Amino acid sequence: MKKPLVLSILATAVLLPGCATTIIDTAPTTTAVAPTTTIPSGTNEQLLEQMRLTIGDISTAMSASDKAKAKSRLADLQLAWDVLQPQIADKGEQLTQDLQRLIDLADSAVTRNRPADADKALRFLQIVIESLA
Length: 133
Prior knowledge:
- The chain has 133 residues and is mainly alpha-helical.
- The chain is built from five helices and no strands.
């Protein structure tokens, strides 16, 4: 009777550790680098030109079905607008509202997948730039 008891204890000692949970660490060993953001600056004319180029990039990206680039350029457009908006506030509320509509059209182009809205925003922004010159 001692022999089966010893064998069962030995078998238990050998087999039970095989049922233990094994953790394999697959986490990356490098730390992610935070993206840097450049805040646009310049005169009203320079910022409007930058916005025109950015909306053009959004239009091109949407036509090419490149949503990632369009979203990135939309963020750049919003940064430029955030800088320009207080600078043009003294030129009248109507101008601010018109430009906000253009920003909304560009946003609609990207978020609702409407490339024509980016084209409209680009055409209307060109008219605004010409009227301010």
